[in-house]
Amino acid sequence: MIRLNEKLRGFIYKGLKWFLLGSAVGFLSGSAATLFLVLLDKATQIRIAHPTLIIGLPIAGFFVGYLYYRHGKDVAGGNNLILEEIHNPKNTIPFRMAPLVLLGTVMTHLFGGSAGREGTAVQMGASLADQLSKYFKLQAQDRRDLLILGLGSGFGAAVGAPWAGTVFGIEVIRSGHFKLPIFAKSLIASFVAYQTTHLFHAPHTVYPRLEAVQLSIQNLVIVLVSGLIFGLTARLFSELTHQIEKLETRFISFPPFKPFIAGIILVLLFNLEGSYRYVGLGIKVIQESFSELLSWKDPLFKILFTSLTVASGFKGGEFIPLVFIGSTLGSVLSQYVPLPKGLLTSVGFSSVFAAASNTPIACSLMAIELLGWNVGPYVLIGCFVAYFVSGHRGIYKNQPKRSKKIKIF
Question: Which of 29, 103, 279, 332 is buried most, with the most CB atoms less than 10 Å from its CB?
């Protein structure tokens, strides 16, 4: 009886501890995501009102590069640093990761860099969560869990998809294998973060909700083949980004020159293309892709511009650009197959990032939360097919390889 009481007390104590820790992580992630989304929205509005700001992209790139060179060498790894700390815990992630990546991302978007935003929220969430480990006596596994909570809650808060955030932090590191304890902890952190963004009125993007589409063998086959295309597209993006990064490292020794030179190239390319359709996030184009037939140049140009932007040291991440690439590619493919445009766009919306980040479950949930239950069966198939054919290396270099993936090339 005494042993039972001791076990019960231990269980209650541990549950209460993680409820409080999870809630604290969620509040920190949600608050940081709200501040970030508000600032990013303001920066985007300013750039749209003053398009000549794009000319300053090389200077902004040099500023961000120099800032990290002088004050952020130990946090320059970004998401990869977080993944490394989860798998091989050594030192607490410095607090300065959060303000540095926040400033760097706002600068990138103010001057038109083709980058995302959720990667920044993930880094802010994880770095803020890790600060809590200084004030609690946490063992290595507990600290890993804290970082997972920061990853997931940051993602869910920025996207506006708490169920996806619950799974993302676990799935991206292939840790915990969705065991109940880590799932429950992540659930608390992600939903608290999401509710915090609502409390502070974060400007989340709204996407169209799709109507039901009849399930049929033909539709499933089309989605399966499309998933193959989306997976190979994700692989193209990942490989191009890694190759640009290698090339710059080989020929440019002073790190701040990487985004400076890339900024010059991007400004020239933006002006040659002429429409400025591929600067910044491109949310408007993503929303258009659900109702309009778009051109092949939309996904192809976004791949080029984003790979050059993120590989060179500009901040922001890849999520929204990969959603842009997948959505516009889905719109293009819908011109050639008898499947509703909005449905194929929805599959691309989720599948390309699922393949590039190795998170098919989280991305399926994300699509269902943002676009509605009607897309569920199709995005699930598309995400997993894309994931299996996208190759062993995704956008995160420190992510463990998935040995069960299909090797095509």
Answer: 29
347-396 pLDDT, tens digit per residue, is 999 999 999 999 999 999 999 999 999 999 999 999 999 999 998 778 88
Residues 278 and 374 in one domain: yes
- Each residue's pLDDT tens digit, 302-359: 999 999 999 999 998 899 999 999 999 999 999 998 888 889 999 999 999 999 999 9
Cα–Cα distance between 211 and 360 in angstroms, integer? 22
- Examine the domain organization and report whether 183 and 225 are in the same domain: no
The CA distance from 283 to 278, in Å, is 10
209 in a domain, yes or no? no
Asked if 154 and 234 sit in the same domain, the reply is no
**Cβ–Cβ < 8 Å for 188, 19:** yes
Residues in the chain: 409
CATH number of the domain to which 368 belongs = 1.10.3080.10
The residue segments making up the domain with residue 283 are: 217-389
